[in-house]
């Protein structure tokens, strides 16, 4: 029997799943100042990420993009850790804030995405906005077909609108779209919205202290070792 | 003196400028039926394109995408020319209508875009919607970095919002964005909105009867022979 293609589009969480934010942010912090431990600062800055989106998700705050939230979180983290922002050149602070646009890909990301692109529409499904994701793709050579940022859907995951509006813009029913992520909560929300799901572990995302998301904890459609393995597994579902 | 990069993003009109709609539509019509002249039908179908967007531009009609407008225009053209739609399989009619998603690139498009992609953000700035432009890119191997369809800007060119909202989503000032088109009216509107402009002639777009847009008629920033030549000319403005 001829296998059917499981989905038409394979979309990806980006921060942590496709790119190594901890390495990229640590490096940018180290280049900015030697006043703090770069890795610790990166973890602390990222630690404010989910809470900062909560008021947007709940509707208390109008949608603002990640450049705004990252900047607020940068200032709070700097104040808490003693990173000197006020005495720095404003353009250097802006450059540091935009380090989230310049993150390195995990080693398997580009080869895996390149293979997937042969058979599927590929793109990010990220809380990043369109310009950030475009700059990230240029920087890390991510071969996306299409980029629909959170400033287009006006929703932050795991808000169901983030998943559903993306599928709608692709004119695909949710079940023809797969989300691939290293985060079980993201996949749970995508599955609840009707998307297909794939988990890949990124056990080094947070460093040695990582306890969450070391393995799949839900009934995901695919569990893969990395993006290259995901491409191999999905190939079995592609008509030859 | 070190040359500066003229712009950050080089965006393209698609129908006629990047892809040969007359060839693609003629072929799809020929495959659908032998009741009409395929080339004449393609010209007549396309002839209803600009008028059909006018009520959306003026605000009389809420935004509807090109699948909707192409379908209405297909039915009107079929009625006027004797193409039998009612007796055809509905899925064949839908396939014909979506021939606008499957148009062939002009021979210079992919090599020229591939070269431009090395130095600039490249994407369409088209009246097509995101799904149509994504499918077109997959079909014709157009290596866009980002696709912002008219369903995202909710505006049809030459409405200034089409140009300005695209630049805004890229977080670029209009003068850092270039529109490349084979149509002088499109470039005039882009220039009026503050974008940079490049003209490339597509004298075969409408076939032997073409009288418009055989040459540049405005003060465009660049006039190129084709997209490969555009890449060559813009390379002179790129820091090496």
Main features:
homodimer; 240 residues; alpha/beta; Rossmann fold; DNA polymerase, domain 1; 45% helix; hydrolase (chains A, B); Haloacid dehalogenase type II (chains A, B); HAD-like_sf (chains A, B); S-2-haloacid_dehalogenase (chains A, B); HAD-SF_hydro_IA (chains A, B)
Task: Kindly summarize this structure in a few lines.
Two copies of one chain form a homodimer. Chain A is an alpha/beta fold.
SSE order of chain A: EHHHHHHEHHHEHEEH
Strand order of the largest sheet of chain A: 2-1-3-4-5
Number of strands of chain A: 5
* CATH fold description of the largest domain in chain A: Rossmann fold
Query: Regarding quaternary structure, how should these chains be classified?
Result: homodimer
Structural class, from helix and strand content of chain A? alpha/beta
Provide the CATH top-level class of the largest domain in chain A. Alpha Beta
Low-confidence stretches of chain A: none
Report how far apart the termini of chain A are: 12 Å
Portion in beta strands of chain A: 5-15%
Per CATH, the superfamily of the largest domain in chain A is HAD superfamily/HAD-like
Give the helix tally of chain A.
11
Largest sheet of chain A: 5 strands, parallel
From the 3D coordinates, which CATH architecture of the largest domain in chain A would you assign? Answer: 3-Layer(aba) Sandwich
Describe this structure in words.
The structure is a homodimer of 240-residue chains. Helix content of chain A is 45%, strand content 8%. The model of chain A has no long low-confidence stretch (mean pLDDT 96). The first copy, chain A, has 240 residues and is of the alpha/beta class. In chain A, helix 2 packs across helix 4 and helix 6 runs parallel beside helix 11. The N and C termini of chain A lie close together (12 Å). At the A-B interface, helix 7 of A face helix 7 of B.
